Amino acid sequence: MKRFLFFSLLSILITGCSSSDDGRNNNPNLVDINFRLQLNLDLPQYNQLNFPGNQIAIYDDLAGIGGVVIYNVNNDLYLAYELSDPNHVPDEDCPGMTMNGIEATCSCEGNVYNIVTGEQVEGDGEYAMKAYRVEKIQQGQSIRLIISN
User: Fold this and answer.
1) Residue 25: pLDDT band by 50, 70, 90 thresholds?
2) C-alpha to C-alpha distance for 39 and 109, rounded to whole angstroms
3) What CATH number belongs to 33-148?
4) Helices (H), strands (E): how many in the chain?
5) Among 22-36, 39-53, 67-81, 82-96, which stretch is predicted with the lowest mean pLDDT?
């Protein structure tokens, strides 16, 4: 039993300390900010998120850096991404990206990203969209989403 615990702990330490080379965690353009956004899907402004394939963009001081887009994949899985272009530093002259279906577009750089995968589909850059955590809480018929960094 002691050996099992030792090797389990060792495995956790090794995998927990490994570095990621996908660029999502080491983007120098987007700072990590702490926020927690709660959405009640019973409210009319979030009703679209009750149906798979729909998204909403929230441009709010409490939602990420330049806003957050939330996408309903299949009513069980929701995705959320930062709406600041990950391939340049956000500034006042270049607001958050705008949505067109499942694509987010930066009006300054012309970069286009797919909000299902977070990957860049047009333009120049090395970084994918910054993903946020989404927790779905169901209480009876009511659904709440908690989006956080």
Assistant:
1) low
2) 30
3) 2.102.10.10
4) 1, 10
5) 22-36
